[in-house]
Each structure stands twice: as C-alpha cells, then as structure tokens.
Amino acid sequence: MHHDIDVARWLEQVIGGWLGYYAVPTSGRSLNSFIHSIKAMWLDLLA
After folding, report:
1. Looking at residue 43, what is its pLDDT?
2. Distance between CA 6 and CA 13 in Å, rounded?
3. What is the pLDDT of residue 2?
4. Do residues 33 and 18 make contact, with C-beta atoms less than 8 angstroms apart?
5. Res 22: pLDDT
6. What is the pLDDT of residue 46?
7. Which of 15, 25, 32, 34 has minimal Cβ neighbours within 10 Å of its Cβ?
8. What is the CA radius of gyration of the chain?
9. Three-state SS across the chain?
10. Residue 31 burial (CB < 10 Å; 0-12/13-18/19+)?
C-alpha cells in the first residue's frame, strides 16, 4: 500500500511537469486525452 502512495506522488510530479511544458491554449484536446490515458493506466494497475 505504501508503494502505491510513492508511485502516485511520483506520477503527480511527472504529469505536472508534462503539463507545465506542453500546456498551451490550443492543446486542450490533446491534454485531455493524455490525462484520460494516464488515469486509465493507473486504474488498471490498481485492479
């Protein structure tokens, strides 16, 4: 269980960095797709 929390914190940093670099006013659709994919992968790992 503790490992999941560490991974979640790391993933939050990775996604935050990715969004900080790629987030521009016209990239909303791509960003939404990226976030959806990450959430789906994370939920698959927890199942």
Report:
1. 82
2. 11
3. 62
4. no
5. 82
6. 74
7. 25
8. 12
9. CHHHHHHHHHHHHHHHHHHHHHCCCCCHHHHHHHHHHHHHHHHHHHC
10. middle
Q: How far is CA 1 from CA 5, 8, 35, 44, in A?
A: 7, 11, 23, 16
**Beta-carbon contacts of residue 23 (< 8 Å; ≥ 6 apart):** 31
Is the separation of the CB atoms in 38 and 15 below 8 Å? Answer: yes
* Torsion, Cα of 7, 9, 11, 13 (10° steps): -150
What Å distances lie between residue 30 and 13, 22, 41, 46, CA to CA? 19, 10, 17, 25
C-alpha torsion 8→40→37→25, nearest 10: -70
* pTM of this structure: 0.54
